[in-house]
Amino acid sequence: MDTPISDFIREYAGADPVRLHMPGHKGAGDAERFDITEIPGADSLYEADGIIAQSEKNAAGLFGTAASFYSAEGASLCIRAMVYLAQLAAKRRGLPETILAGRNAHKTFVTAAGLMGTEADWLSPENGTLLSGVISPAAVEAKLKARRYAAVYITSPDYLGGMADMAGIAAVCKRYGTLLLADNAHGAYLRFLETDQHPIAAGADIVCDSAHKTLPALTGGAYLHFGAGAKDLIPEARHALALFGSTSPSYLILRSLDEVNRALATDFPQQLRQTCKTLAALKRRVAAAGFPVYGAEPMKLTVTPKAAGYTGAELAALLAKKGFICEYFDPDYAVMMPSPCNEPAVLEALAAFFEALPKKAPLKSTPPRSDLPPKAMPLRQALLSDCEKLPIRQCEGRVCAAPCVSCPPAVPPVCCGETVTAGAIEVMRYYGITHCCVVKEPDRGI
Ligand SMILES: Cc1ncc(COP(=O)(O)O)c(C=O)c1O
């Protein structure tokens, strides 16, 4: 596998030129040596026709896509581009601009829809909580039968490792001629398992992957992938990304994505499959030790410790004392994201930790359930309104202006334009959300 971006930057840094161009650090420092700008030969991300285009083509080959594009600003940038492209496709096809979306969506989807004046019609995960649960092909079909949408938007895997039946949902979308967008931020690696589980292989049309979450890439590295069903939108991809991206994308991140291609073409897939096997055995040991494991995502270890008498926060604190730092925890879950880049001994030590941890009486509390809050005004109107941040106890009956939820997990209990209900306040309190941005009173109502 060639690495054109990495080669160009290495040669440039090795020649030790006088850098009379950005960035201001002039290459002083270990990482800074490889941090350049759009000098001749370095191509330009949003008008790529040189080394970047070549590297993206390598990525497309590895991921088996119709085309793949790099983002140096995470999957967040790709989500904004996907919402824009769905809206564009709706205009071209004479469809309404509303997107049918799983409610376990990352807040970037909510703000992207708001910024573009796209409405979201929500599908709540069945048998789940705010963060995770099943969105079935049947539930999608019931909605598509009733009306037309610009696109369906599914988050899979979700933050806890829940996975949707993407092939089933893709088949439904194909039957109804609806574009399927997938937030696969957590699942870039799924392509490289024994059986390809990537949403593109399942039939999704446009997919975003955070390379940095599960592949050996620098934070910020991500992909916008196109399947065969969205070929007509490929010519618009760079424009869609450039609309929301910085004009100074990081070459350190582009170089990192370029080098990931080499890893994916050589030994990473094999290491990944081995780690998956080890992790599957580890999950069995953790469950046998009395700590049930949640979710079908192979590389995520999500433990539900209440069965053994611990909250997620207590478990995460105990793990931290032993040097294991979780990706995320809340009252019910502790989420760990190992990768082939962890030492194999780490997984053995993790299994031993759970086996040695004393079991206590199970904790019976469960997360509060709340119906979807009623919509009071369009998403865009609420997001762009004059708003005030208030303690949640003062928010009942007010209209939510912005998703007041931090990252992780960044799944908002109340979305822009919805009325904050007593049930939603209970959910926010449970997840430690203390304040909410609400529309200032004079702006209330449509
Ligand atoms: C489900 C989901 N989608 C999208 C994102 C955004 O990804 P990025 O951090 O690459 O912008 C995240 C980040 O945590 C996420 O969990």
Helicity range of the residues? 25-40%
Find the CATH topology of the largest domain: Aspartate Aminotransferase, domain 2
Shape verdict:
globular
Number of helices in the DSSP assignment: 15
Write down the secondary-structure element order: HHEHEHEHEHEHEHEHHHEEHEEHHEEHE
Helix/strand/pairing class, anyone? alpha/beta
Query: What's the CATH architecture name of the largest domain?
Result: 3-Layer(aba) Sandwich
Q: What's the main sheet like?
A: 7 strands, mixed
- The Cα radius of gyration reads 23 Å
Mean pLDDT, to the nearest integer, reads: 94
What does this protein structure show overall?
The structure is a single chain. With 446 residues, this protein is an alpha/beta fold. It has 3 domains: 4-265, Type I PLP-dependent aspartate aminotransferase-like (Major domain) (Aspartate Aminotransferase, domain 2), CATH 3.40.640.10; 269-356, Aspartate Aminotransferase, domain 1 (Alpha-Beta Complex); 379-443, Molybdopterin biosynthesis moea protein, domain 2. 37% of the residues lie in helices and 13% in strands. It has 15 helices and 14 strands. Strands 1-7-6-5-4-2-3 form a 7-stranded mixed β-sheet, with helices on both faces. The protein has a 4-stranded antiparallel β-sheet with strand order 8-9-11-10. A 3-stranded antiparallel β-sheet has the order 12-14-13. α4 (107-116) links the parallel β2 and β3. α3 packs across α4 (107-116). The longest helix is centred in the middle third of the chain and has 21 residues, at 268-288. It binds pyridoxal-5'-phosphate (PLP). Residues 74-76, 106, 108, 155, 159, 183, 185-186, 210, 222, 407-408, 410 line the site of pyridoxal-5'-phosphate (PLP). Pyridoxal-5'-phosphate binds at residues 74-76, 106, 108, 155, 159, 183, 185-186, 210, 222, 407-408, 410.
